[in-house]
Design brief:
Length: 225
């Protein structure tokens, strides 16, 4: 099964790149609209406190090299593992060091989705969104601040980890990463903001707004051909 999925991902790699690079304006406008529609009230105050709390903690503590980056390395490698499992690959080992990076052993080859996953996928946010989704925004008081902290953590660590020396991006190809990552990050960021502001229904509305804007742009462009 993993071999079939890897072959299919190779086949769709550049069509995905084309779609994602053309999606940037639509997703960007949807994110801006989502930010503009946000209501700063009691229902999302915990999320905001979590965002500000982690931003301050990172500035004061976590960005210092002496603290090490073992946790972010572990989260990075776990994200590789998540996409390996999703594409039916077997993971046999994961190594993490204090401040010298880490590695993961994946059997049966790899694919671009596994390689590029940590540079856009908010691994820590997903379980927190599930907790909030099943318990209701008022049912787990700790989860909303944790989601806000995880949201800022994801953006900070993604920014720090995305550079030309990363072997993951070298394997994926910088041209593909340049086409794919802006839209993928905007989508994940917008989805989390929408969820924090209004739950799963708001996240769905964000996706629909993005799709409608994209279709409108394509129709407008089609008039010139």
């Amino acid at each position: 099964m993993a071999t079939v999925i890897d072959a299919w991902l190779r086949f769709i790699k550049w069509p995905v790149a084309i779609v994602f690079i053309t999606l940037v304006p639509a997703v960007g406008m949807a994110v801006i609209a989502e930010i503009g529609a946000w209501r700063f009230g009691a229902e999302n105050l915990g999320f905001l406190w979590g965002m500000m709390g982690y931003a301050a903690a990172d500035w004061l503590v976590f960005r210092k090299r002496s603290v090490g980056d073992a946790f972010s390395t572990l989260e990075h490698e776990l994200t590789h593992a998540v996409f390996a499992w999703l594409t039916f690959h077997r993971v046999s080992s994961l190594r993490v060091t204090w401040n010298q990076g880490g590695s993961i052993r994946i059997h049966g080859g790899s694919n671009w989705l596994i390689s590029i996953g940590p540079y856009w996928f908010p691994t820590l946010c997903i379980p927190l969104m599930l907790v909030l989704g099943f318990s209701g925004h008022g049912g787990a008081e700790w989860a909303a601040p944790a989601l806000g902290a995880a949201y800022v953590y994801h953006h900070i660590t993604t920014w720090r980890e995305t550079h030309a020396a990363q072997t993951d991006l070298q394997e994926t190809g910088f041209l593909f990463a340049w086409c794919f990552l802006p839209t993928a990050n905007l989508l994940s960021s917008g989805l989390i903001l929408a969820f924090a502001g209004g739950g799963a229904g708001q996240s769905l509305a964000f996706i629909l707004r993005t799709w409608e804007t994209y279709l409108a742009m394509l129709l407008a462009m089609a008039k010139y051909f």
